[in-house]
Each structure stands twice: as structure tokens, then as C-alpha cells.
Amino acid sequence: MSTGSSTGIRVASADDIPEGEGIEIPRDVTGTDDDIALLKDEDGSVYALNNTCTHEVASLADGWVEGGKVECPLHSSKFCLKTGAVEGLPATKDSVAHRVEVREGEVFLYPGERPA
Amino acid sequence: MTTTSEPTSEPCITGATGSPAGALRRPAELFQPMDVSGLVDAEGGYVDRAIFTDQTLYQQELRRIFAPSWLFLAHADQFHKPGDFFTTFMGEDPVIVTMNKKREVKAFLNNCRHRGARVCRADYGQTRNFTCTYHGWSYDLDGQLVSAPNQAAYPDTFSMADWGLVEVPRIETYHGLIFGTWNPNPLPLREALGDMAWYMDAMLDHDEQGTEVIGGVHKWVLEGNWKLSAEQFATDWYHVNMSHASALMVMSPTGKGPKDEIVHRSGRQFSNELGHGAGFPVHPKNRFDARTVHQHVDYAALRERLGDARVEGPLTNGHATVFPNFSYLPVNGSIRIWHPKGPDKMEVWAWTIVDKSWPDEVKEAQRLYNLRTFGPSGIFEQDDGENWSEVQAISHGFITNGVPLNYQMGLGSEKHDGTYPGDTSELYSDAAGRAFYQRWKTLMSTPAWHEETSK
């Protein structure tokens, strides 16, 4: 794995993530305070949010990904995949979205950078 | 038990699940066992109608029949991936049957440990967790409590590990049929089936691949005590020509009624002390009714695998009940459970199973044949439901309720016939009914594990 804001961190192959699901990238790889969830929507596009739900301790990487949103597997709070904005109770705080790019089937993560 | 209560000789009913109970102690008055020995005379062939109507007896059935017995939960084919679940009942207790991440099938009481709502409201599906919709307590696929919102407000003594879903302690599978029991030390399922397993194999063990479920689970509500239907499937070919006369006319190839040899059949009826029963006509040319199924089935291969006695008997026609409330019909692949809903009501849940090895068109033919004959749209099933509801509807009459019912057909005819395992009687007989109610009386008279006094 290489680091550097220009190229990002290669964290996975896009095929590693089933459509409608997510995988968790540990914080010791991302260098962030929280783990990061890579989430693949049904159309195949990949997004990255802070992994821990802002409501209670739950992994968004275990959630349901559908229609531009991820639904928390525990209490069904919803977050926008693009912005991390909370879109449904019981959570009330936004998650954090990170820039992510897929190049030749590989997923590059830019921890801490806002998506374009 | 992890209670801190004083030693007591009171029945330890709180301890049926071993849940933390603090200072709670249930008064013995909540459950005063009734002596039922005078309500069933299996030797003479009499049954007192109160067993179909009395609320106190019904509560005792939940404690002493449903709680300790092996109960059918689901078919193994309903669980393929972690998180696949199916919700059902054990007696009146709601349970979730699910596959955990280790691909083990587990069952849990569908009851939030916090305020007691169900944690899964769906009939079946796929999930990661079971989250209560009331306050949000959430449980994983092993039943462990993994989230209790605002957890910081609970005292230091609160441990998530103490508040998981109550697990059904024993789950066992027989040829794809998943059974569970609340009894922590039951007879192993195979032993609890006894000779009944030989008859079940005639439906479940046609080849190495076994069976699978086709279509959904049909569910319908009937007025009628659960024993009326369980008993009939154990012991009653007698009703067929009378109750199902119109259906038999319609189904006959000429439309003018079946041949004499179809109406006047002979066969055997199995019964045993465990309460199970199965009856079936015996004939060398017995066959599956659905033509496509009949044409596909290799009877010679089945004779090789199951033996002539099974192919000529319980392979095709016939009826059966696994005590207390699981029944099946080999001819159309119907397997069903009679869920008790109070003394006067039952909910029938019926699956259709087919051989995995059958081609799709054969499976579909069996599904359609099943729909036509049994299930809520079935022309035979409607006759049966009408009878049970008729019997129940008048059972509360004071005079009516005190008039004993007759179970004397074939009295004393039970014998080892050298061909069919266990005791068998004639096709037309009440032998399995008498054995069913004798087993009922035995269990109703025996304190269950949860009634043992704490030391």
C-alpha cells in the first residue's frame, strides 16, 4: 500500500465489495480516528463514510446500501453515501464522507478529503 | 438459575429459561396442576370433551406438552445463508429460527428482554440483526444483545451478556425437518421419534438428496382445538369416504365416483406409546395421485431403497402425526403444524415439500396437486376444517361437553404384524387416537423440567 494525497491509498479491489454491501477499512490503514466503510451502491459506484454510526456503536459497513443511502444494520438510521448527511432517525448527526476513486478496478481512498 | 432468592421449595417456574430474575418469585398459585387421569380412558376408548374446551387444561398443555416436547420448527431448505430467518411458534411462544455466521441453525424466543415486544415482525427474510422496534435493543444472529441505546444510564451491574435473546436449548434435524425443544435434557430426537422414523422415511428419504420446500408457507386460522386435527392425522382414515365424498367424486377419472376397490381399502395404522400415529392403505399398485409425479417416480428403485412394505404402504397414500402437533401427507408433500391459539382456535401452517432430485415440472405438478386437494384452497382440506370447527362450535354446551366421545374402533386389534414396525392396527381404527390421548395424559400428569423444586 502506498500513501500520498495525490494517489490516495489503494485499499481494496472493487470486486471485493458486493453490490448493496460494504467492507470495513481499519483505522490503522486509513490513519483516521474512525475506521472507514467502503460502500457499494446497487449501480456499482463506491463511496466511503466513517464506519461508526453517529447514533450508537454500529458498523455501517454491515449496513444495507441502496438508492444512494446506507442504512445502519442496528437501528435503521440512514446516511447519504455522497455527503454523509443523516437522512433518518434515530441518528441526528451527519457522518463524514471521504473521497474515493476507482481506477482500473482498484479502490483508492483519500482519508480526510471531502469527495468532489 | 442466577437468582439471589432464599432457598425455597416452591415450584421454580421462573427458572424455565434461567433468566436473571432479581427478587422475583412466582407464586405457586399461578400454576396448580390438574389431575387429568379421569379425562382419558385409552383402554376403554373414551375421551372427555373437556380436554378440548377447558382454559386451565390448555394452560397445562402449554407447560407440560408443548414446553417439553420436540416441536417442528422449519425445513432445513429455508436456511442457506447467514442471516436467513423464519419466524414461527412453539406452542404459543414466538420463536425466530435463523442461521448464524457459523452457518448453524439456532432458534430464539422472539421476545425483547427489555419490555417484551417481538424483535422480528417479518414472516421470513434475511437480516444482520434483530432490532426491537420499541426502544431499539438489538441482538445479533447468536441472540447476543449488541446495542441498548442510552446504555450509559444503566447501573454498573447491567451486563449486556445477561440480556441476550432466550435461546431454544436443543435443536435437532431429521431428514431436513428441524425440531426444537425447551427441554434442556430431552430424549434425542431420533429416540423420541421411535418407530415413527421408519414411516417418516417413506416420505423424506426417497434418495440421497432428500427434500426441499416449494412455494410459500400457507397459514390459516380455524375454530377448533389443536388436538382435533393432530388426532385426525394420526388415526383417521375412517372419515375419508364420508367427509370427502364430493371431492372423491370430482377427482375420480370418470367423474362418477371412485371404484369400489378405492373406497373399500385395507391397510395398517401404526401407533405407539410416544403418541405418534400413521395410517395408510396397503396395495401393490399404490401410486402418487398427481399423474406427472406418478409417471416420474421410479417405484422399482424405491422398492430397492425403502423395501416393498413402505412402497406399498406409507410411500404414497396415508396420514401421519408426530406428537404433539406436526402432521404430514405423503401423497401431496404437505407438512403442517397445528399451532394452538387457545382451547378453541388453531392456526394451520402448511408447507409443500418435494424431492430435490425431481425435475422442475414434476415439482410444479406436485405443488399444483397439493393446492387443489389440501391447503386453504384444497377441496379435501375444506371438508376437514369444516368438521373440526363444527365439533368445536358445540363443545361448550354444558350438556354436550359432558357426553363422552367414542374411540373404540379396533379396540384390542393392535399387534406386531411382522411387516410393519411397532404396533399396527387396521386402516380403519382409533388405535393411534387412543395412543395419542394416552401420551397426552402421561405428559399432562408428569411435572416438566421447569417444575422441579429448587434446592
What's the overall average pLDDT of chain B, rounded? 94
The counted number of beta strands of chain B is: 22
CATH architecture of the largest domain in chain B: Alpha-Beta Complex
Helical proportion of chain A? under 10%
- Count of runs of 4 or more consecutive helical residues of chain A: 1
CATH superfamily of chain A: Rieske [2Fe-2S] iron-sulphur domain
CATH architecture annotation of chain A: 3-layer Sandwich
Q: Measure the end-to-end span of chain B.
A: 11 Å
Main-sheet strand order of chain A equals 1-10-9-4-3-2
Which bin fits the share of residues in helices of chain B?
A: 25-40%
Count the E strands of chain A.
Answer: 10
CATH class category label of chain A = Mainly Beta
Q: What fraction strand of chain B?
A: 15-25%
Query: Could you spell the SSE succession of chain A in H and E letters?
Result: EEHEEEEEEEE
Q: Supply the number of structural domains of chain A.
A: 1
Low-confidence stretches of chain B: 1-13
Concise synopsis of the structure shown:
With 116 residues, chain A is mainly beta.
Topology of this structure?
The complex is a heterodimer of chains A (116) and B (455).
Chain A: E1 9-13, E2 22-25, H1 27-30, E3 36-40, E4 46-50, E5 64-66, E6 69-71, E7 78-80, E8 86-88, E9 97-103, E10 106-110
Antiparallel strand pairs in A: 1-10, 2-3, 3-4, 4-9, 5-6, 6-7, 7-8, 9-10
Chain B: E1 40-41, E2 46-47, H1 55-66, E3 71-75, E4 84-90, E5 93-99, E6 105-109, E7 124-126, E8 130-131, E9 138-139, E10 145-147, E11 170-174, E12 177-181, H2 189-193, H3 196-204, E13 211-213, E14 218-223, H4 226-235, H5 240-243, H6 245-251, H7 260-263, E15 267-271, E16 277-281, H8 291-296, H9 299-306, H10 308-311, E17 319-322, E18 326-329, E19 334-340, E20 345-355, H11 360-373, H12 379-394, H13 398-401, E21 405-406, E22 423-426, H14 431-444
Antiparallel strand pairs in B: 1-2, 2-21, 3-12, 4-5, 4-7, 5-6, 8-9, 9-10, 11-12, 13-20, 14-20, 15-16, 15-22, 16-17, 17-18, 18-19, 19-20
Helix pairs in contact in B: 4-14
